[in-house]
Amino acid sequence: MSLDKSVKSQSPWQIGFERLKKNRLAMIGFTLLCIVVTISVFAPLLTSYDRDAIDTLNSYQKPSAEHWLGTDELGRDTFTRLLYGGRISLSVGLVSTSIAVLIGVILGTTGGYHGGHIDNIIMRIVDIFMCFPFFLIAIVVAAILGPSIWNVMIISGILGWTGIARIVRAEVLSLKEREFIEAARALGLNSRDIIIKHIIPNIMAPIIVYATLGIARGILSEAGLSFLGLGVKPPTPSWGNMLAAAQSMRSLRLHWWLWIPPGCLVFFMILSINFLGDGLRDALDPKLKQ
Amino acid sequence: MSEYLIRARGIKKHFPIHDGVFCRTVGYVKAVDGVSIDIKKGEIFGLVGESGCGKSTTGRTLINLIEPTSGSVTFEDKVIYDVENKIKVSAKEMQALRRDIQMIFQDPYASLDPRMTVGEIVAEGIVKHKMAKKKEAIEKSMALLELCGLRGSNVNKYPHEFSGGQRQRIGIARALALNPKFIVADEPIAALDVSIQSQVLILMQELKEKLGLTYLFISHDLGIVKYFCDRIGVMYLGNIVEQGTSEQLFSNPQHPYTKSLLSAVPKTHPREVRERIILKGDVPSPASHFTGCKFYSRCPNAIEKCNQEIPELREIEKDHLVSCHCVKLGGKI
Amino acid sequence: MQNMTLEIENLVTGFKTSDGAFNAVDGVDFKIEEGKVLGIVGESGCGKSITSLSIMGLVPKPNGFISSGKILFEGQDLLKLSEEEMQKIRGNRIAMIFQEPMTALNPVFKIGFQIAEILETHKNMKRSECKPISIELLKKVGLPRPEKVVEEYPHQLSGGMRQRVMIAMALSCNPKLLIADEPTTALDVTVQAQVLELMKDLKAEFQTSILFITHDLGVIAEMADNVLVMYAGKVMEETDCETLFDEPLHPYTNALLNSRPERIKPGEKPVCIPGMVPSPFDMPRGCAFAPRCARAMDICKEKKPALKAISSNHKVRCWQYYSEEEQCQNI
């Protein structure tokens, strides 16, 4: 390529996102995600009802112009609760993933970069954490500390870091052997400089991919736990406990508007996050240069 | 001050082999097994050998990028390490020494961080050693790129936008950023195209003259070493088996391994007749135990003594050292 | 007229990428006689490897495609064959040796099994018959203790031994044509010498034609009978090996020969070719080598020269060898 051309130079990130833009499924996922995030964030502007306002006279209303998605047994507006529920579900996904990524990246890079005993100890801790059955622990913790949204986030984060720690460690192990790391050492950089300046930027791609998929997992586990009554406490709505509230045979048969919308939202959220995650993986992987 | 820039005495690097359930150390790969090198100021010292002979490890152990197992290295009267006498420079001093000692790497695709711009890559050392502020450092790196035959305006580009030869120039610019005195070049042109190789060699030579550099040039290619280096050491299984000036080594090789290496170089013309010394077998594993000369199993003129006694590296004429029982003083077999 | 093993006429192999399409091989013609070695020299990206993949029908799909030309192997046009018919020829009548023997061997199977697999596919042999033949083949390529090697895995062998195994596998069906794509580039000089010796012996014994692809002119001097010099997908010069070294005509060939470090005398500056290979998306309008050529004339920058026969066995693609009238006619 001729150097004389003043082509605007693109960083590997920009190239990755250019490639992502060409992936239709990922872009659909991304758009859906953006829409849901926006409507959850701006929930108060989109609905005139109060989240927990009880209106027993209007319980079990069918969807109408007034109540777009009907009302529940206490006459609360389902659409409103769905929007607010999105806030909870998404924040559980985000916070738990952030906790998992933070722990996973710190332990994974330390183990991978230093190797030897430190690595051995960290990997054994990973093995131990991987033995804990997630739902069992979650139920126990919820039983002891009482159900709360924070517990769900923390448990899900603390039990979810092992996967990312393994991925990060494997990436660091192969990265460590690359000559530019050695070049950095020859320049006199110490381990901390190297990890922050060279290792972390180069493992961002798998971390982003894993984190995206982790958000989906967080949302699912919140839905699962809340459905069991161990997650978010009513009256705070989340997609999980909205489903739980509609689990009676009667509701399932007669009040479809109570469970189909949250069910669909969970389904489409997970699907679109997974599409985006897969798209990111393909776009950011430097090996797939075409 | 002595005429030598860097002196290494008996440096060794043994990598432990772990095996079994409890990862016990069951042996050592003797990658570098007692190498002594003295490199004069302004000299290009070549280290040749085949893959696995320990030449790259020697280069890295010499400049303390790999923890040595034993031996000592003195750089300009300063002892970098002396394992036997338990002397070692502190991490801080070593960091300061890194300014004087730099390295150029083999693979121009792996040696540049793909997520950094060329300017950041070249300026990284300058900023780290607080020789300049970031902005000045980028300006300096523009000058360095121009010195290495690239446009200074390339500082904002990323490595993937360059070809192999250009990347190698960036790698050289990075090594020069700290005004080093000594550069270890580990097969700097092996991964480049033929027509680009000589470009990079010329650049390295010009820089040497302009900046008064000293090189340790590691290569597997005898043809390049012959032209480029002043003195050459031939390595086999972690030891230098023959060392001499380029002239001595190519016109009067003494060690049977050197002879076979030279005879294996492809012809330069189809009509050229060359007597091949084809070695039997393969290089033994560097983890095996040797009672005598390491070349014994493949040597065409081995005698009984070779399997019993380790030959020393002896000077057979001025500057010409050979480690072989069969070579007598003055260079006669 | 000798028997031709392979004749290639006007082969064009293109690639589609996200940045556009380009021809990696752009109108290549050559012939290989029975029992002869044709060497192709060139730098990376000159199209030499794509030429060999085109012959094997292994151009990566769907991005790569052969857009025109003929590949006549023993008189049969390989481009007209179905994938199934190609499979019968591949590995059987035409065999290939790759640059990196470690990646070309399957790491989870024993050497003996991998050789037997070829014999089973192409010679319809039973598994039990294969082993002695495999040992025989390994012995022929000069591997020590072949009885043991058949029971070993690729990672237990050294690079040189692996390349010998690759050659044994390639020769297992007595191919008429052997394509060797940089077979010694990954090897050390002493091992390279061993492998080249071996290939010469085998060629003499089996009368196999070899298409030898390399970037190393030294290896060409060792091996080749005839040589093609390729640059940017085109043949720049074509002649027999001795003529190429005695009187190279094309400036690119000259520069390649002179930039070899062996040719440099102490104290002299090595010759070097300035600049670099043009990008396939940014090909010069005229001769592809013109921007780097010390002897480039005006016409070189304007118009692509054609391959011109200087003598019966020497062709060159350069405007210098056209008379002024011919040049004028072309402008």
TrEMBL record, chain A:
It is a multi-pass membrane protein. Keywords: Cell membrane, Membrane, Transmembrane, Transmembrane helix, Transport. Residues 86-277 form the ABC transmembrane type-1 domain. Its main location: membrane. The chain crosses the membrane at residues 25-46, 88-109, 121-143, 149-168, 199-220, 256-277. InterPro entries: BP-dependent_transpt_permease, MetI-like, MetI-like_sf, Oligopeptide_permease_AppC, OppC_N. The keyword Transport applies. Pfam families: BPD_transp_1, OppC_N. It is found in: Cell membrane. Belongs to the binding-protein-dependent transport system permease family. This is ABC transporter permease.
TrEMBL record, chain B:
The keyword Cell division does not apply. Keywords: ATP-binding, Nucleotide-binding, Transport. InterPro entries: AAA+_ATPase, ABC_transp_ATP-bind, ABC_transporter-like_ATP-bd, ABC_transporter-like_CS, Oligopep_ABC_C, P-loop_NTPase. The keyword DNA-binding does not apply. One of its GO terms (molecular function) is ATP binding. Gene3D superfamilies: P-loop containing nucleotide triphosphate hydrolases. Residues 6-262 form the ABC transporter domain. SMART domains: AAA (SM00382). Belongs to the ABC transporter superfamily. This is ATP-binding cassette domain-containing protein. It comes from Fusibacter ferrireducens.
TrEMBL record, chain C:
InterPro entries: AAA+_ATPase (IPR003593), ABC_Ni/Peptide_Import (IPR050388), ABC_transporter-like_ATP-bd (IPR003439), ABC_transporter-like_CS (IPR017871), Oligopep_ABC_C (IPR013563), P-loop_NTPase (IPR027417). Gene3D superfamilies: P-loop containing nucleotide triphosphate hydrolases (3.40.50.300). Coiled coil: none annotated. PROSITE patterns: ABC_TRANSPORTER_1, ABC_TRANSPORTER_2. It holds the Pfam family oligo_HPY. Keywords: ATP-binding, Cell inner membrane, Cell membrane, Membrane, Nucleotide-binding, Translocase, Transport. SUPFAM superfamilies: P-loop containing nucleoside triphosphate hydrolases. It is a peripheral membrane protein. Residues 6-257 form the ABC transporter domain. Belongs to the ABC transporter superfamily. PANTHER family: ATPASE AAA-TYPE CORE DOMAIN-CONTAINING PROTEIN, OLIGOPEPTIDE TRANSPORT ATP-BINDING PROTEIN APPD. This is ABC transporter ATP-binding protein. It comes from Fusibacter ferrireducens. The lineage of its organism: Bacteria, Bacillati, Bacillota, Clostridia, Eubacteriales.
